[in-house]
Amino acid sequence: MISLKGIHKSYVNGKNRLHVLKGIDLEVESGEFISIMGSSGSGKSTLLNIVGILDNYDEGEFRLGGEVIRNMSERKAAWYRNHMIGFVFQSFNLISYKNAMENVAMPLYYQKVGRRKRNLRAMEYLDMMGLREWAHHLPNELSGGQKQRLAIARSLISNPKVILADEPTGALDSKTSLEMMDLFKNINNTGITILIVTHERDIAAETQRIIRLRDGVIDSIVKNGERKKWLSEQVMA
Ligand code: ADP
Ligand code: MG
């Protein structure tokens, strides 16, 4: 589903050049649930933004669903984002003056779906997230957990193949965070590939593979079952 080979990315600021990703190799199968960890500044968001076609890369090859994604026109990139990818962010990125239903329906607006049809679809997704009664409320009338469920509903409404979530539980308490992970697991069980950036171990522990970034390279890739087995062997020894 996602193939990254030798990906390099630098940010240039005047005379300064910051080499952020220094050769990333990663294959993600369709239907996988993967977490990306690493300290602040290690390049996690940069990597996610490349996979989400929000940003370009300098070197290497990135394929999404078999197609090489490189220096795309904004029009084509937008098409891919609208049809393949759902985004979830730490800060929710909801539109403050639109109600819950309109926020969820927004991706369909960009797909030029008519208002009646997109609001009907939005209500289905709100229902799925237990937010039907909140359809006509503004985001600031919702709790953090409700806002994130709203953002997840919005990410799902266009039937994406991949969900990219950048620290989606970063602004939530631990109980709500784990509820959010259950939600992501249910979504993953429907076959949607999920990449989630987190710096919380117990969040990463809920995913199938943990990718650890350090200074722009992959430091380790650990399959969760194996890690648990390894840990229990250490305890036994
Ligand atoms: P992480 O998400 O792991 O905290 P980021 O990928 O956001 O890290 O950032 C990696 C490095 O790249 C940081 O040093 C950050 O300041 C820098 N950086 C990120 N985005 C930009 C940008 N648009 N322009 C310049 N530097 C950036
Ligand atoms: Mg980040």
Characterization of this structure:
- The protein has 237 residues and is of the alpha/beta class.
- It has one domain (2-236): P-loop containing nucleotide triphosphate hydrolases (Rossmann fold, 3-Layer(aba) Sandwich), CATH 3.40.50.
- Helix content is 38%, strand content 28%.
- Strand 4 and strand 5 (67-68) form a beta hairpin.
- Helix 3 (100-110) runs parallel beside helix 5 (144-156) and helix 4 (115-128) packs across helix 5.
- The longest helix has 16 residues, at 174-189.
- The N and C termini lie far apart (39 Å).
- The structure holds adenosine-5'-diphosphate and magnesium ion.
- Adenosine-5'-diphosphate is lined by residues 11, 13, 18, 20, 38, 40-46.
Summarize the structure.
This protein is α/β, with parallel strands linked by helices. The protein contains eight helices and ten strands.
Question: Would you spell out the secondary-structure blueprint of this structure?
Answer:
Elements: E1 2-13, E2 16-28, E3 33-37, H1 44-51, E4 59-64, E5 67-68, H2 74-84, E6 85-89, H3 100-110, H4 115-128, H5 144-156, E7 162-166, H6 174-189, E8 193-197, H7 201-204, E9 209-214, E10 217-223, H8 224-236
Parallel strand pairs: 3-8, 3-9, 6-7, 7-8
Antiparallel strand pairs: 1-2, 1-4, 4-5, 9-10
Bound molecules: adenosine-5'-diphosphate (ADP) and magnesium ion.
